[in-house]
């Protein structure tokens, strides 16, 4: 017979065994949780970039062992444009759900092998099957088109995407991190779909230099306002000017707007530059009034980012109080300033413009006729000026049908009580064409190039 001591030992052994099993179970559960946290996107629950890098390297190693050519496989980085704006509008929960659905939709694509999601950055990164560049571009285009609108809850949201692509051609394998970085760099300079090339590194390096210099440049008054005259086509008499910007940087040299405005738009710094230019133009007009000199209307471009800026109207009101008048100031906005995902955002943008109009600013719609013009804006916005994009003029030079479009666009602007101005006039033939189509105002190199402030003042004095 077993003694009481023997029974006690057996019980203790069972307890010890149960404790060990519990510890092992807890360790296993803890390890599983750590693995989930390491390899999953917390917001969507889908695999993340870390998992994707390991998965790609594993697949490349397997393809290499099987003597399969992986050089035509690629990384595609899909980015939701202005994801921060979407999050502030609809809430982060909606964006998380949108990113989850985007990731799941891409997982179902047969040309995609693996998907990693970065919800917080608005990115989905995919590893593709080997295919030709043409097939790859077409596949990405088709996917982006099919995913542009998405139902989330009771809302149909527009999800504007851009994409950067880099293949594994010439890349030591396995090296997923390198190719993901290259695709990300391509995405950062993309307006739609962009393949990586070596020049992207140079552009990115230049963009970094611009970002490092821009705030100091504004503080040191390195940005200059140049003025391009606007003319009456028949009399060749000036009727105003457009304020343009140049950057004379000690580090970067003399830069044209096309070299830095896109970077400023991406970083949001363009709103600070716009107010700097407005301040300079207000000051210039005030100085001319105080000197008893004639004041001509000067138009100043305004970024679409202002429309979403909560303090924009208050800043404009402070400018008016500081300089005492709005006389001679015209604000130019493009149609893209009103290209929003929701009708409420668009209505709010229109309200901002109406308030500016009530304050006394003249409002100009710039680049009309480029791309798909939204005629409803002509009805909803209190416009004083319609500026025709140069592409409409150029297209009309060799096409009777486009001349008819140009003529009727000009007539429509006049019928709506707007002054119609055509940009980019470079030849006497273009001037004659516009006059025949009914356009009486324009600007371009044919009449005068942009000039710095002092030269513009002499120009006005000589023609007073």
Automatic annotation (TrEMBL):
<dbReference type="InterPro" id="IPR043128">
    <property type="entry name" value="Rev_trsase/Diguanyl_cyclase"/>
</dbReference>
<dbReference type="Pfam" id="PF00563">
    <property type="entry name" value="EAL"/>
</dbReference>
<dbReference type="InterPro" id="IPR001633">
    <property type="entry name" value="EAL_dom"/>
</dbReference>
<keyword id="KW-1133">Transmembrane helix</keyword>
<feature type="domain" description="EAL">
    <location>
        <begin position="207"/>
        <end position="464"/>
    </location>
</feature>
<protein>
    <submittedName>
        <fullName>EAL domain-containing protein</fullName>
    </submittedName>
</protein>
<keyword id="KW-0472">Membrane</keyword>
<dbReference type="InterPro" id="IPR050706">
    <property type="entry name" value="Cyclic-di-GMP_PDE-like"/>
</dbReference>
<feature type="transmembrane region" description="Helical">
    <location>
        <begin position="6"/>
        <end position="24"/>
    </location>
</feature>
<dbReference type="InterPro" id="IPR035919">
    <property type="entry name" value="EAL_sf"/>
</dbReference>
<keyword id="KW-0812">Transmembrane</keyword>
<dbReference type="GO" id="GO:0071111">
    <property type="term" value="F:cyclic-guanylate-specific phosphodiesterase activity"/>
</dbReference>
């Amino acid at each position: 017979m077993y003694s009481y001591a023997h029974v006690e030992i057996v019980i203790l052994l069972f307890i010890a065994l149960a404790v060990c099993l519990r510890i092992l179970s807890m360790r296993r559960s803890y390890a599983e949780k750590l693995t989930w946290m390491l390899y999953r996107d917390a917001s969507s629950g889908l695999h993340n970039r870390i998992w994707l890098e390991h998965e790609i390297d594993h697949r490349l190693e397997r393809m290499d062992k099987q003597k399969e050519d992986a050089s035509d496989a690629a990384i595609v980085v899909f980015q939701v444009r202005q994801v921060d704006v979407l999050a502030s509008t609809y809430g982060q929960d909606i964006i998380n759900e949108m990113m989850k659905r985007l990731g799941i939709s891409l997982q179902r694509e047969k040309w995609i092998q693996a998907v990693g999601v970065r919800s917080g950055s608005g990115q989905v990164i995919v590893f593709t099957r080997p295919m030709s560049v043409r097939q790859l571009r077409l596949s990405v285009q088709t996917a982006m088109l099919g995913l542009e609108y998405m139902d989330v809850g009771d809302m149909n949201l527009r999800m504007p995407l851009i994409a950067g692509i880099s293949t594994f051609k010439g890349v030591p394998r396995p090296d997923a991190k390198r190719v993901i970085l290259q695709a990300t760099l391509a995405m950062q300079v993309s307006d739609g779909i962009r393949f990586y090339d070596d020049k992207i590194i140079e552009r990115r390096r230049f963009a970094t230099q611009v970002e490092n210099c821009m705030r100091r440049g504004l503080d040191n008054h390195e940005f200059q306002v140049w003025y391009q005259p606007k003319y009456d086509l028949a009399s060749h008499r000036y009727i105003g000017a457009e304020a343009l910007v140049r950057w004379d940087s000690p580090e970067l040299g003399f830069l044209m707007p096309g070299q830095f405005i896109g970077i400023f738009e991406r970083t949001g710094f363009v709103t600070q530059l716009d107010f700097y230019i407005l301040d300079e133009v207000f000051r210039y007009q005030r100085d001319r009034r105080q000197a008893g000199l004639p004041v001509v209307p000067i138009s100043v471009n305004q970024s679409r980012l202002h429309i979403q800026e909560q303090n924009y109207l208050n800043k404009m009101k402070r400018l008016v109080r500081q300089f005492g008048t709005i006389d001679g100031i015209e604000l130019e906005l493009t149609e893209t300033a009103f290209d929003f995902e929701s009708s409420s955002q668009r209505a709010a943008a229109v309200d901002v413009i109406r308030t500016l109009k009530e304050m006394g600013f003249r409002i100009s719609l710039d680049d009309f006729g480029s791309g798909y013009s939204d005629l409803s804006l002509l009805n909803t916005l209190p416009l004083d000026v319609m500026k025709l994009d140069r592409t409409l003029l150029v297209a009309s030079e060799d096409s009777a049908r486009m001349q008819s479009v140009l003529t009727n666009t000009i007539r429509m602007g006049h019928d709506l009580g707007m002054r119609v101005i055509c940009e980019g006039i470079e030849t006497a033939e273009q001037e004659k064409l516009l006059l025949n189509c009914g356009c009486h105002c324009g600007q371009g190199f044919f009449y005068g190039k942009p000039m710095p402030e002092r030269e513009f003042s002499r120009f006005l004095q000589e023609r007073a």
